Every structure is written in structure tokens, then in C-alpha cells.
């Protein structure tokens, strides 16, 4: 079955965790003992309803405060598709957690409280999803039951968001009125909103087309591991394992190995215990080459006439996750696909206000949870593409060498 990764976002108390709980419950993805535990906890707190947010808010501090702090991942499936949900926090101080959860998403789900309309948090999360190039966005107008299922409220919020979205890069936008608590338009169409003629949320998630979002033109295969079995049966076996980041690989194709620059052809492609006729994103395979070349972890297999240019000067948008600010001349470790090296911050060009899209060029440092445009100089050439072209080869993480903690996530704008 096809797989869809989606991340929820929105302001505090907009009902993200409740919505996920409703999706899990109505799609029969909850065990009976889990539901009983949630019902007992809800009764103990004096609620006259089952608090479905307890299904996703796993931390004690989250349950006590009724907020989401860390990214919670949940899994469920329908007969049509498998899903991985990232329930991301809404607080501004947890922006880095939201970026982490949305970085691999195929779809972003932004919730808005129908009583409040668009808020600063809603706009900020839409901007972040746009920066992360999440190809599909759903605006869920939640708590429609608290405004009497008023069509005028829905239409106003839809118009406001569509006006704001013109400033962003959002290829596909869908707006759905829902009530996560009551279940209206979540799994099945609601009779309380006959004026809405679109699909339910789950129907849209099941049918949104994501296969064309992958880059099937630019062949990119970062080598993760060299496979040399210590067995008499496979004494001459040599393969290169990794995950296809772009394009399509087939036996007989002429390929180029970077950074060495040698060309060869693909002899075979193995997938666990069998050969396959082709490999494409996001398959994990082992590629066997016709010639014995010096290929190791961090190298990349691509097409001779469509290859990324090795670059040490990187221009990127960086979401800073460290407690100490990011400053020019700072030295960090960098990890890009399977390639690792060190880098120095040449310049912080501006800090982006994700609420107004204003570029603050006076600030020459990035504090915790801030996003800005940064120029880097790396010790090893990165085999990269612009993030707008390939989200895998266009992204990297920055690591504090002293502690080993990931302190930054970057999206490459250009490389020289």
C-alpha cells in the first residue's frame, strides 16, 4: 500500500491531538484497553466526554497542561493507504520540534479554531510548511460545532487564508470544515454542514496524489554502506547500499560516481533477497556496478550528464535549534545525506520573521527557534541540489562538535 506522512500544526488548543485521536478512533486503529484507559482518565477529571487528545499526548507534562510539547508519532492504516502522523506542538518555543516533525511530511495539516479565525500561530506554521516545501496543505477549520456550523464563518476563514497563502509557496491547498470532538467531516461526511460539498478529511488523505511529488528525473543515490559479505558463497560480491533520493535506477544504466568522477554501468540492483528491475524514491536498495571502483560512504551515484556540482560554499535557510545563538565565524559539524564534514559560518544575512515574512538584516545572529539565511563554508564538497529541487539532497543538519547535539537544520538555496 501507498504511504502518506502528514504533520499537524496550529495554535495551542486548536484541537490537533483531539483530531488525531478522532482519526484513530473512527478508523478502528485503537485497541479496546487503550480506549477504556482514556475513558477512565476523562471521567476521573470530571469530563462529560472522552478526551481523545489523551491518545497522543504521552508526556506527563503534556497531559497536565493540555498542550503538545514533543513530536508524537502515530501510525494507522485504512484499506487504501498507510499513514504516519506527526503531531507537532503549537507553542513558539517549540518551533524546532515542529520543523523536525514536518521535515519529512508529504502533507501539512494546519488547524484553525473557527471561533478565533487565523492567528499568528496559524500563519507561522503555514510559513514554516512553505519553507520546508511540503507539497500539500490542508487547512482544517475546527470546532465548527461551537459556531453553530455557520457557513459564513468558514467562508471568511477560507478567504483570509487564501489571501495570506498567495505570499507563500503552496502548490496544493484544500480547506475542510470539521469538528474533531464531534467527528463532523473527519472520517465521514457531516449532515450538520450540508452546504459543504467537499470530501471528509480522511477521504482527502486517502486520495491525495503524492507519487508525482518525488523527483523521478534527477538520479541521486547517496552511498550509505559498502556491502562485502564474509561468506564463501558471496566472496566476490560487492554492492553499495543506500536509499534512492531521486530519479530511477535500472540495470544497464550508465552512471557517474562522485566525487571521483569515474563512470560505469549498473550491473544489478538488489532489494533484500531478490533482484529488482528498477529502483526509485524512497526505496532502499543495494546497487552492484560493472567495474571495481573506489566507492565509499558519502559518495553519490548519479547520471553523467545530470549530476550535482560539488560545492563548499553553501547559501541556505537555517532553523536554529541550539540554546546558544548562531554567530558568524562559528565552527560546526555538518551532515548532508550520508556525507559528513565540518563547516564555518561565513555570514548571517538576515533573520526571517515567520509571522510577517519581514527580513531583519540588522540582526547578525540566530537565537533558539529562529530561522534565517546563512552562508557556510564546508571542509568537504557537498554533493547537493537546491532544496526546492530535491528535499533530500537539498537539506542538512548542523551538529555541535563538543556535545554531538543537533543544533541546526538547513535548506539549501544555492551552492557555488
Sum up the structure in keywords.
416 residues, alpha+beta, Rossmann fold, Elongation Factor Tu (Ef-tu), domain 3, 3 domains, 8-stranded antiparallel beta sheet, 6-stranded mixed beta sheet, 21 strands
Explain the layout of strands and helices.
Elements lengths: L1 E9 L5 H11 L5 H13 L15 H6 L6 E6 L3 E7 L7 H8 L4 E7 L6 H12 L4 E7 L8 H15 L6 E6 L23 H7 L12 E3 L2 E3 L11 E5 L10 E5 L3 E10 L2 E2 L8 E6 L10 E3 L7 E11 L10 E6 L2 E14 L6 E2 L10 E13 L11 E5 L6 E10 L1
Parallel strand pairs: 1-3, 1-4, 4-5, 5-6
Antiparallel strand pairs: 2-3, 7-14, 8-9, 9-13, 10-11, 10-14, 11-12, 11-13, 15-19, 15-21, 16-17, 16-20, 17-18, 17-19, 20-21
CATH topology of the largest domain: Rossmann fold
User: Which CATH top level class of the largest domain fits?
Assistant: Alpha Beta
- Give the tally of β-strands: 21
Cα end-to-end separation: 40 Å
Task: Provide the CATH superfamily of the largest domain.
Answer: P-loop containing nucleotide triphosphate hydrolases
The second-level CATH architecture of the largest domain is 3-Layer(aba) Sandwich
* Tally of helical segments: 7
Q: Percent of residues in beta strands?
A: 25-35%
* Number of spatially distinct domains: 3
Mean pLDDT: 86
Helix content: 10-25%
- Along the chain, the helix and strand elements come as EHHHEEHEHEHEHEEEEEEEEEEEEEEE
Q: Please state the CA-atom Rg, rounded to the nearest Å.
A: 23 Å
Amino acid at each position: 500500500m501507498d504511504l502518506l506522512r502528514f504533520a499537524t500544526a496550529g495554535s495551542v488548543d486548536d484541537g490537533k491531538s483531539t483530531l488525531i485521536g478522532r482519526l484513530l478512533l473512527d478508523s478502528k486503529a485503537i485497541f479496546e484497553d487503550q480506549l477504556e484507559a482514556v475513558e477512565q482518565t476523562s471521567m476521573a477529571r470530571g469530563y462529560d466526554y472522552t478526551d481523545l487528545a489523551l491518545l497522543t499526548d504521552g508526556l506527563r507534562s503534556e497531559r497536565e497542561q493540555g498542550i503538545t510539547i514533543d513530536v508524537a508519532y502515530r501510525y494507522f492504516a485504512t484499506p487504501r493507504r498507510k499513514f504516519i502522523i506527526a503531531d507537532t506542538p503549537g507553542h513558539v518555543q517549540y518551533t524546532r520540534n515542529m520543523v523536525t516533525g514536518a521535515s519529512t511530511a508529504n502533507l501539512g495539516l494546519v488547524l484553525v479554531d473557527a471561533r478565533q479565525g487565523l492567528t499568528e500561530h496559524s500563519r507561522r506554521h503555514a510559513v514554516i510548511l512553505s519553507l520546508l516545501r511540503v507539497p500539500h496543505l490542508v487547512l482544517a477549520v475546527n470546532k465548527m460545532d461551537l459556531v453553530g456550523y455557520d457557513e459564513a464563518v468558514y467562508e471568511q476563514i477560507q478567504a483570509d487564508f487564501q489571501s495570506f497563502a498567495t505570499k507563500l509557496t503552496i502548490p496544493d491547498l484544500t480547506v475542510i470544515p470539521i469538528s474533531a470532538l464531534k467527528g463532523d467531516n473527519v472520517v465521514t461526511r457531516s449532515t450538520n454542514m450540508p452546504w459543504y460539498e467537499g470530501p471528509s478529511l480522511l477521504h482527502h488523505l486517502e486520495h491525495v496524489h503524492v507519487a508525482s511529488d518525488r523527483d523521478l528525473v534527477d538520479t541521486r543515490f547517496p552511498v550509505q554502506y559498502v556491502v562485502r559479505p564474509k561468506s564463501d558463497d558471496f566472496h566476490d560480491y560487492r554492492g553499495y547500499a543506500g536509499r534512492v533520493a531521486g530519479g530511477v535506477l535500472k540495470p544497464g544504466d550508465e552512471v557517474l560516481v562522485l566525487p571521483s568522477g569515474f563512470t560505469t554501468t549498473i550491473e544489478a540492483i538488489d532489494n533484500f533477497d531478490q533482484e529488482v528491475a528498477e529502483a526509485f524514491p524512497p526505496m532502499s536498495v543495494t546497487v552492484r556496478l560493472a567495474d571495481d571502483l573506489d566507492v565509499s560512504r558519502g559518495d553519490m551515484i548519479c547520471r553523467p550528464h545530470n549530476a550535482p556540482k560539488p560545492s563548499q560554499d553553501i547559501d541556505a535557510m537555517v532553523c536554529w535549534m541550539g540554546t546558544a545563538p548562531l554567530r558568524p565565524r562559528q565552527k560546526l559539524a555538518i551532515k548532508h545525506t550520508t556525507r559528513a564534514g565540518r563547516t564555518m559560518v561565513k555570514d548571517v544575512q538576515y533573520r526571517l520573521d515567520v509571522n510577517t515574512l519581514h527580513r531583519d538584516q540588522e540582526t547578525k545572529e540566530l537565537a533558539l527557534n529562529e530561522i534565517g539565511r546563512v552562508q557556510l563554508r564546508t571542509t568537504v564538497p557537498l554533493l547537493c541540489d537546491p532544496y526546492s529541487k530535491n528535499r533530500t539532497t537539498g537539506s542538512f543538519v548542523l551538529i555541535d562538535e563538543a556535545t554531538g547535539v543537533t543544533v541546526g537544520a538547513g535548506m539549501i538555496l544555492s551552492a557555488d
